[in-house]
Design brief:
Blueprint: E1 4-11, E2 17-24, E3 30-35, H1 46-49, E4 57-61, E5 65-66, E6 73-74, H2 79-94, E7 107-112, H3 115-125, E8 130-136, H4 148-160, E9 165-167, H5 180-188, E10 195-197, H6 198-212, E11 223-228, H7 236-244, E12 251-256, H8 270-282
Parallel strand pairs: 3-4, 3-7, 7-8, 8-11, 11-12
Antiparallel strand pairs: 1-2, 5-6, 9-10
Length: 284
């Protein structure tokens, strides 16, 4: 059984249109919203979204925006826009077949790297519509940050030029994987994002504050945290502690001691892919 991948156009509330990847198996049992990181795109996650992986589900990768005057897509530039865009994509999926047994409009939400922040924010704002939350090396507590000088420049830009672009401090393929084949893929990738606006960096900081109070939100559905033992981007210890403090009764942490940040890029991603699909399938 295979899943066909389609390009779907989605129009956000402000009229901006984007294209997203939709992997569509013949008889989907549920829906999955797949939120990727800052630099990545749907092409990084073909294994988990493709033929052998999604026999039961309909995954949908988050599309980026294209800011006026820039040749590359950009993530949302405000907290309100971030939530509105993500909710718009969720609503797009909820109109499709694949609800749970009770027919309730909900979707499984996967957040990878920085997309983990968006996933948590979505579950916080719309808990009834997020059936499960899968956080894959989520960027909730990063080890990598801007330097003090860069933070000062961002602060100045917030006063006089909020659209000024700054390098993402992850422009090294070795941050994502030590698999030579996949490192070469990242290095050659002409579609990866390398800069973001000062406004976006502020939005990311605002999301950090919301993440800290997520345990007080009404979300009580299952949460699965996937961690890579050799992750150079994420603070695994802080992320584990955060997960253990959540009130959701169905919580799980799965760790891969030899895994890199992008678990899908590991030399043998099968254990991770099987764990992800199995956990969601058991809760479909």
């Amino acid at each position: 059984m295979t899943s066909e991948v389609h390009s779907k156009q989605i129009t956000f509330l402000d009229g901006y249109s984007v294209h997203a990847r939709l992997w569509q198996p013949p008889n989907p049992r549920s829906r999955i919203l797949y939120l990727h990181g800052i630099q990545s795109h749907g092409g990084w996650y073909e294994l988990s979204g493709g033929a052998r992986r999604c026999r039961l589900h309909r995954p949908h990768a988050r599309p980026p925006r294209l800011r006026p005057g820039t040749p590359t897509p950009q993530p949302p530039d405000s907290l309100d826009q971030c939530l509105a865009d993500t909710k718009c994509m969720l609503d797009f999926l909820l109109k499709m077949p694949g609800g749970d047994a009770a027919g309730r409009p909900s979707a499984h939400v996967i957040g990878v790297s920085w997309g983990g922040k968006q996933a948590v924010h979505l579950a916080q704002a719309h808990p009834r519509h997020v059936k499960t939350l899968s956080l894959i090396a989520p960027g909730l507590f990063p080890r990598i940050d801007l330097t003090l000088t860069e933070k000062f420049r961002v602060g100045v830009s917030m006063i006089n030029d909020r659209e000024k672009l700054f390098d993402i401090p992850l422009n090294d393929a070795a941050f994502f994987t030590d698999n030579p084949e996949r490192m070469a893929f990242v290095e050659r990738d002409m579609h990866k994002l390398q800069q973001v606006s000062a406004r976006f960096l502020l939005t990311s900081r605002q999301l950090d504050k919301l993440i800290r109070v997520f345990p007080d939100s009404p979300y009580r559905n299952p949460v699965h945290l996937f961690l890579a033992g050799r992750d150079r981007i994420i603070d695994n210890e802080k992320t584990r502690d955060w997960l253990r403090g959540l009130p959701s009764p169905d919580r799980r942490i799965t760790e891969y001691p030899d895994g890199g940040h992008t678990l899908e890029f590991d030399r043998d991603p099968e254990p991770f892919l099987n764990d992800l699909v199995t956990w969601i399938s058991e809760r479909a």
